[in-house]
């Protein structure tokens, strides 16, 4: 059997590759479960400080959920479909969104449906100029189910998100950049180098601070400003006793590069 998600470590960065190119890297249940399990393992691996996520082949990042497989769950009724499909997909995107190490999507081609929702959920994203995006679930007579009705409006604004959700129309990488869905659009051959370069820019800094920033932003988006400021205060309090904060301050005072330990 071929692994539906490949994992390769390059120094302090793990490269995860959705690996069903013949199916446009569609997210069947095995793929979702495999990706979730790899995230669990990489969170526990102190040597890995960031993750780059991409798709195998030249055509697709991910075309979304595996419709043939998911149709069997639908035939089983609402409870089965929610349990097998919706909860699985929402669990994955929530895991990516709250992951304590930076996750960067390198969107190499089609990012439709669940592939677009993964892009919405990860912390940062870079798109190839060949990438295309869509929210096509309405063409199947259903709303998005992996978080697309919630995250896209938060990224793009209510009216712009609703246009994409209600029409199902595809849009370009440059439009995704305009909407705030991706951070940059680059030539196709520069995609992975650009994603790894972005990761390296982050890895210059304390992983403790990075995890605190991710937690504060992710949680704070769904709170009032007052509640969010409390979360910010809590994340700062967590780093106060760490080596990294003391080292960062000492290095700044002594005008040298800090030596962070991640603790």
Question: Could you tell me the mean pLDDT?
Answer: 96
Structural class: alpha/beta
The total count of helices amounts to: 11
Compute the separation of the termini in Å: 39 Å
Question: What letter string, H or E per element, gives the SSE order?
Answer: EEHEEHHEEHEEHHEHEHHHH
What coarse outline follows from CA principal-axis ratios? Answer: globular
Radius of gyration: 19 Å
Largest sheet: 6 strands, mixed
Determine the fraction of residues in helical runs and give it as a percent range: 40-55%
What is the topology, as strand order, of the major beta sheet? 1-2-3-5-7-10
Q: Count the strands? A: 10
What does this structure look like?
With 263 residues, this protein is α/β, with parallel strands linked by helices. Helix content is 51%, strand content 16%. The chain has helices spanning 29-44, 67-75, 78-98, 114-121, 148-156, 158-167, 173-179, 191-203, 207-220, 225-239, 243-254, and strands at 5-10, 13-18, 50-55, 60-62, 103-107, 110-112, 124-128, 132-134, 171-172, 184-186. The protein has a six-stranded mixed sheet, with helices on both faces. A four-stranded mixed sheet has the order 4-6-8-9. Helix 4 packs across helix 5 (148-156). The mean pLDDT is 96.
Keywords, separated by commas or semicolons:
alpha/beta, four-stranded mixed beta sheet, globular, 263 residues, single chain, 11 helices
